[in-house]
Amino acid sequence: MSWFAAILLPQFSLQAALRWHEEAWLQPIAILEGDTEKGRVLEMTEPAERSGVWRGMVPTQALARCPALRLVQRSHAQEEVVSALLLETTGALSPFIEATAEGLCAADLRQIKTRDWEQWAGAAVERFATRELRAQIGVASNPDLAALAARHAKPTLIVQHPEAFLAGVALSEVDSSPDLIAVLHDWGIHHLGELARLPRSELSERLGPAAGALWEQAAGRAQRELRLVRPPEVFWEACDFEHPIETTEPLLFILRRQLEQLTLRLDEAYRVAAQMTLTILLEPGPSHVAAGPDRYERIFTVPSPTGDAEVLFRILHTHLESLQLAQQPIGVRLRIEPVVADRSQFQLFESPLRDPNRFGETLGRLAALVGTENVGVVQLEDTHQPDRFQLATPDFQKLAESQKAGPSESRTLGLPLRRFRPPFPAHVRFQRHVPIWFSSPKAQGEVIDAAGPYRASGQWWDHHAWSIEEWDIELSGGALYRISRCRGSCFLEGCYDA
Amino acid sequence: MTRDYVELHARSAFSFLRGASFPEQLAERAAELKLPAVALCDRDGVYGAPRFYGKGQESGTRLILGAELTLEDGAVLPVLVESRTGYRNLCRLITQAKLRGTKTDAPVHWHELEQFAEGLVALTGDEEGPIARCLEQDDHSGARERIARLRRAFGDKNVFVEVQRHLRRGEELRIRQLADLASAEQLPLLATNGVQYAMPEQRGVLDVFTCARNHTHLDAAGRLLSANSERYLKSAAGMTELFRDLPEAIANTVALADRLQFTLANLGYEFPTFPVPEGETMATFLRQRVLSGARDRYRGSDFNSQVRAQIDKELALIEKLGFCGYFLCIWDLVQFARENDIMIQGRGSAANSVVCFTLGITACDPIGYKLLFERFLAEGRNAWPDIDLDLPSGDRRERVIQEVYRRFGQHGAAMTANVISFRGRSAMREIGKALNFSLESIGRFSALFANGDFPHTLDLKAQLIQAGIPKDHPRAEAAATLYQMMKGLPRHLGQHSGGMIICQNQLSSFIPLENASMPGRVVAQWDKDDCEDLGIIKVDLLGLGMMSVLQETIALSEQRGRKVELYEVPADDPETYEMIRAADTIGLFQIESRAQMATLPRLKPKEFYDLVVEVAIVRPGPIQGGLMHPYLKRRCGQEDIVYLHKDVETVLEPTLKRTLGVPLFQEQMLKMSMDLAGFNGSEAEELRRALSFHRSHDRMNAACAKLHVRMKEKGHSREVTDLVVKSVQSFAVYGFPESHAISFALLAYASAWYKVHRAPEFYASLLNNQPMGFYSSATLIKDGQRRGLHFLPVSVCESEWNCTVIDDTTVRLGLCVVNGLRKEHGAHLLLERMRAPFTSVADFNLRTKLNKPEQRTLAKIGALHGLSAHRRDALWQIELPLDGEGLFARQAVRPPPAPLAPMNAWERLEADQSGMNLSIGKHPMRLLRDQVPHAWRAADLSQAANGTYLQIAGQVICRQRPGTAKGFVFISLEDETGVANAIVVPQLFERCRLLITSESFLVIEGSLQNHENVIHVKAQRILPLSAPELTLAESHDFR
């Protein structure tokens, strides 16, 4: 007789969201699918359920039942992490695995020698616990039966007598077409036992082969092959914080836990980390960081690929020590690009140092001294603010391609301007808003001609509002300059090559 | 006045997301800057022109009409109107493009310009203009080619090369190119500022609009946003200084403006004409129709000298004002409706006119009710009469609307526009999205608005804080400022629910028309106030669900040989009044709401005029104005009747006597001003209009000042004058025309009479015309059952499409109540049944060919009874596939019974609710009663002593929080015996807000209040009543 195991992560979305917040299971929390206005409750913790919060409720109704309820948006990123983790961990139990549904995996146990399935399943549950996951495991003679058993498992269930078990299983637990379930519901059929009592042929005749298959399942006779998959080879972790965090410590704490998890999994897969991508999700609102308004992202190349959590953590720690974020972090993602330990090699810009990781760390510290904002490649920003640019992390591959492509075609609007960085403070005398005399550390004299003012302003919607007036002036000596006035002060911005 | 610059290119917010100021703000600012004129060039329309024109008349700024036309290649061409021909051409050109295109994409073709160019002047436009777009691409030959096209279309003298200077780096090159082009082509240069807002600070609003148009937010919009704030309305001095290098460009603005003398006063609109028989004029024909109608309406001695005199007076005025054609058109439309079996009844101020009454337009006799004709029409007043016609809602109303289009041509009639503006929620939604606030904050901000008509009292900053945007949030200030600036700005154009303007095949010469979202409808670019201000006559064709119900009730009665026409309904029927006094008014017109029900037992209507008062008094205005309680107290003798002030008692008594001294109707206010201040009819009407004209406070103040002066001249004391002015002022907000109330009361009484005397017909019609009124079909059925009616279930063997009457106490539900059953499928089913009765489920299945969900719904709700043993038997059989020929299906052989158990009571209820949103079976509360053994049933509450602390429970059918109730909330709970009402104090509502608004069944505990048979429970505790999930009909919430 073949045996199959189904591994279910009950309340999958809730587990994914609360994976790093064990204490949250004791609070009334509900996961919402959809936005706050039109969303519906998807899953909830036990305290919430005790207060009358049900699946499918709208948020207002749920809050009416349980005023202390905390509504949490479904996090697809965290669910993706947990899905991968489920497959990866199941893959360690058996080579023949199936990604049956969201939060549900099946494994063919024909390779397993044991017959003490209780003990085997218990050990597997423990293994998931080390990944901070609560698993329920059902073992039965076919995959669908095992999946149903997993739903009823506490936390394990071995089905020795299918018919007795199936009689009490609700139809809603079965993975079948909602239309079919709705028809059966109208018929007053709510449990598999009731379905199994219907004549199979007449059922199939009326509702088609899907109903026949469901009947087979209800009768415990369904047999099918697993749709085999391979565990993914991505290693990443995600965590959304309950509240925006104000200091670095909680962030470091979570990152360390994530690294420990990831290196454990790397180790089991005989891999080491070659690159880490750190993404910090930020509170919505103004932002001046490179990766965009809602997140901060940085890629760390691990100079010497390693699986040592401590080394990897030091790289992150060094960077985070000096990082200043305009907004508070609300979540963190850490992704590791693995390589096989033996085959890693140095990249083009890396040198064979005695301890490359330490060198990387040192570079990080240097960046901390001069500021990360002073390291990178200059890019003009999409704004009317003159000379506004940002520094982006260099992408050497793209850089090389753009060099090959040659300079882009751009229209010349006037004389070349040499900018002074930073601009020199200047003193300008105006007559009826026209500059007539100019003085700065670089140049001074009577203005014999001027063009302007040219006015630009922007970001009026927050504290970073700016407004600038510019003139192009010609001094008596014939030199041409660009000057500006900003918040009452004048500057020499640059000189034109005449 | 400075005359050295005229702004000839300005956009208002009526360019919809492309301008940030009201037209009135532009006019006002232009006056402050002493600009003699401004050309308003809204995008593809003249939407904002009447408003600018109105304000300009007050402030002394001349409106030059114009528009920006979107061309087929995406370029935007501003054109200005020089003459009436030009204006007509502009309207026709826009209409042609709009009717051809879609709502969002209706460009003008280049070749059309030539056809409609006469009387128009073209500018070359700003950066979106055809020339600048070519220059931007360095396509100089393209620019010259487009100039040549414009010259060909408009003529050499009517093309101006437009230059704008917004102090942006790089624009000098463009200006030089344009100047060179003008010089080479020998065309005049014209300076404009391409105005997009009146004041620089409104640039932020424009940036938010830019984000909305581009579906982005301010942080990401980059160079889509304005570079600076220079596109505001600038002074002549400012523009002269800005273009000191091109003085001719400034001088040309004045020269061109002098040519553009057309104004909206020269619109040339003419009232509609009506074709009359040879030898007749419209006036003689109208008189003939009126006298003929009068002989029908006033039989025998009723057709007396008073009636004749009034007819003569009205006809003389109608003829003098040139309205004969209009009245005949309306009469003809009414005739059309009658001939086509469409019930029609005029209301509103038209009911004040005996001419309307005799023409059959209205149903109430203004002489009998002593109504003031001047409320409808008066010599010397600017506004023309508009006639409101009530029609059965739905298809029949649409037929009349389409008939108007047919008679007056597609370009001869249009619905008036309804300008959809940014209100609190929509403004903050757009601002929040632009400022990149979280959706949650925006949602919370919206949720904090008061429900229904409850006044919004939360301060803006506090609301932002509660929405999660604290005071020190870097964008909170911007949000608050933008919010104040954006509120009220137009967002897009909708269509008015029933207002139509007409002009024999000429309308598109006066107003551009465009397609409405609804197929077959054309909408004008102006709203009804704009049309009225410019003297364009309109007729309101309003849909009333109750008109449909009454028409159907009469038809059903006729089928059963007991027809009573509306005009035959006996007046003063005791049974009808008894039912009304008992507030047994579910399903009736106007008097079925909770507030009306709470007033009826106190007002105790005994005759028709009591109903008129009832209809008028239970409204937010009179309640807020504190009129209801004095009237009710005076009515039951608890308070003396006074006529405002003892000094004017004798003057006011004749006017106010019928409302016991309480001024309730607009006509009374008009008469008061005539009697006390010596106003003539038009002055009185002008006062009413000024007071109800929300757009202008100045107009209101001026009208009150005039009343003050004239009363003083008449020798009234200051005390009396102040009292009258105050009363008139507050009255303006809530005033209701008496004629309107009479028209409504007629329908209210008729609906009550039919409910008493033609109950099955009335309920069947009510069900056939859902959704309408205050209550759902489920509640109407329960109400009918309590009145002794039997409702038979939907049956595929018996039911028609509509609900039908079986006998005096029985109604058969029709297929129309079945959710998801398509009407054409229903019609096919009925056709098949007519051919031969269905013999089995399989036979039914084979011959009807309904889709699976329809079959299942019919089986589930028990509509296949007679062909199957029970609902689940039908569900089992309906799934059986048909054999190829269907031979066996036709045999009436009963198949073996289904192996499924019949539904229990709760399952049947659930099936009914999900399949029909109603149930003729047990009320859900009967099934839930065991859960609340101590709860009183609604029908038993009258037995309880006043003040008893008790519990009620039921399905929530109504939640209301009227603006007049100071935060109190009214909840109606329906149980198996009737409806129980509860009052919730504001504090308890705040504590249980979500419970009240989200639970379908509630248990409410509190003390019983029985005041003159108006029974309420004053809630002290509210609990949810858990019920299995049911798809319940929607309750009437906060509407």
Task: Report on the architecture of this protein.
The complex is a heterodimer of chains A (498) and B (1039). Chain A is α+β, with helices and mostly antiparallel strands and 498 residues long. Helices cover 31% and strands 30% of the residues of chain A. Chain A has 15 helices and 21 strands. Chain A has a six-stranded mixed β-sheet. The termini of chain A are far apart. Chain B is α/β, with parallel strands linked by helices and 1039 residues long. Chain B has 43 helices and 23 strands. Chain B is 44% helix and 14% strand. The chains are: A alpha+beta (498), B alpha/beta (1039). Chains A and B meet through helix 3, helix 10 and strand 18 of A and helix 8, helix 9, helix 18, helix 39 and helix 43 of B.
Distance between the termini of chain A: 91 Å
Q: Biggest β-sheet of chain A: count, sense, barrel?
A: 6 strands, mixed
Most extensive chain-chain interface:
A-B, 48 and 57 residues
Largest sheet of chain B: 7 strands, mixed
Spans of chain A with pLDDT under 50 lasting ≥5 residues? 286-292, 395-410
Please indicate the count of domains of chain A: 3
Record the strand order, biggest sheet of chain A.
8-7-1-6-5-9
Number of helical runs of chain B? 43
- By helix and strand content of chain B, what is the structural category? alpha/beta
CATH class of the largest domain in chain A: Alpha Beta
**Spatial strand arrangement across the major sheet of chain B:** 1-2-3-4-5-6-7
- The percent range for helix content of chain B is 40-55%
Mean model confidence by pLDDT of chain B:
88
